[in-house]
User: Fold D-3-phosphoglycerate dehydrogenase from Pectinatus cerevisiiphilus.
Amino acid sequence: MKVLVADGVSPKAVDILQGDFDVVVKDKLPAEELLKIIPEFDGIIVRSASKVTKEVISKAAKLKVIGRAGVGTDNIDITAATERGIIVLNAPEGNTIAATEHTMAMMLSMSRMIPIANETLHKGEWNRKKYVGVELRGKTLGIIGLGRIGSGVAKRAMAFDMNIIAYDPYLNEDRAQALGVKTGSLGDVIKNADFITVHMPLTPQTKDMLNKDNIAQMKKGVRLVNCARGGIINEADLAAALKSGQVAAAAIDVFTSEPLSPDNPLASAPNIVLTPHLGASTVEAQIGVAIDASHGVAAALKGEPVSTAVNMAPVSAETMGKIRPYLALSERLGCTVQSLSDGPIQSLTVQYNGEIADIDTKMMTIAVIKGMLNPILQTAVNYVNAPSMAKQRNIKIQEIKNKDVANFANLITVTLKTPTGEQSVQGTLFGTEGRIVAINQHRVDVDPHARILICPHINRPGMIGLVGSLLAKYNINISGMQVGKTSIAGTSIMVLTIDDDITQDIIDQVSKIDGIFDAKLVNFYTI
Ligand SMILES: NC(=O)c1ccc[n+]([C@@H]2O[C@H](COP(=O)([O-])OP(=O)(O)OC[C@H]3O[C@@H](n4cnc5c(N)ncnc54)[C@H](O)[C@@H]3O)[C@@H](O)[C@H]2O)c1
Ligand SMILES: O=C(O)[C@H](O)COP(=O)(O)O
Assistant:
């Protein structure tokens, strides 16, 4: 598979990917070139420069994953990617410190007029009277958006003896208390702050959040910082407020259109410190995001789950650690139960018993759906599109959780209903190895790999021999065999692991053997 590493992402990404993938590096990637070359690639890693638009995605016939070596995914059309089942992932933590420290640097440079003092001194002007700044100590800093970077700024600003007031409508009050930060409404921040810094994504709600109306209500001489996204502070309104003196100074790293055009009103505004989107530009951050994004892209291309995918239900790293060993088993249970069934799938129930009932199992249920649908659909089903594929087919999905369990520490029971009846399989982990432990109430111990042939049969001597001889006639080797017990009198189930390919015609012949009720092949190579 081929991966395109664009936008000057650190060479660390190439080091990580090149063992497994064919890697192409394009530090500069004009939009027309991206459109032209994207059909060749299975994966792409970008920073904010390349725009992965709907048009790019429509041409990306093989694309399975878009990795963002950074936080903001506003340069990627996530809706278009999700519709195509393309995983979009980011690297949300690698550049947090860099952006936090850049915000502090911007606040200090703006307060002490360092850029202009430096520039004029280089021109030979020794101007000590003109560049008298203000202190941070004792000032109120309004932080809008108290996420990773906002909290980091809060901590550092406290060390400068600033008073903090934060506004974040989605913030849990406990988190603010743990940080020792006072919270308030947007209006409280607007009215009380001497400095305001914004740290949230650009969304329809946050666009122009600071504008001429609320800038007019701020303290005269307020100082504003934007190291988040261009447009959260309206650029024309800010430029006007800098000219009028309502805003004493501003420090801006991000712009509505990048690179910054000379026509942008901020380019010529007074008392403003500008940097060309440098928040994440430290050696450490670029290595960090490249490592995280490339590991995510590699995992996605290998069909493994990705904890930083942004178009899937989020799963914490802690939960991921607990569920990871169950994912392959879950997929195999989905594949097995589907292979046992006939007719259109009406509903799928996944029941979790034991300790796993206490954890967030939604990704395991998605793995079951993936395993159930992949063998029967033309479109590749993955962790992103599995729930919507099930919905499109009107399959009712139900999760049941119960801490009670007999015989095992944890048990997953997958039941699938079609108009012809109900099939169920159960699985558990022995150590880290997944095992199918029951098929339609017959107790078995099956390692779900390669292909298995499942034959319910009458419980009488000679049945295994009959099936074995028929398969031997076609030179099909049986590498494993299990006979399942049940409380249902007179019936049994044999599960044969077979190495070789087997035709439907041979399976039909097995099912016609006297005493065999049915023969179903589960091909784990199809998931
Ligand atoms: N300048 C740079 O180079 C640079 C580097 C890294 C991140 N960023 C940007 O910084 C921003 C913050 O990044 P982060 O990692 O802290 O993100 P985060 O997701 O950890 O935090 C965002 C916070 O904003 C809050 N929020 C969302 N909508 C809000 C609203 N309407 N009003 C107030 N708060 C709201 C959320 O509740 C969350 O707490 C993002 O836009 C990101 O793209 C820029
Ligand atoms: O959202 C981000 O991570 C930052 O804006 C960094 O963007 P960059 O990778 O283009 O520097």
In short: The chain has 17 helices and 22 strands.
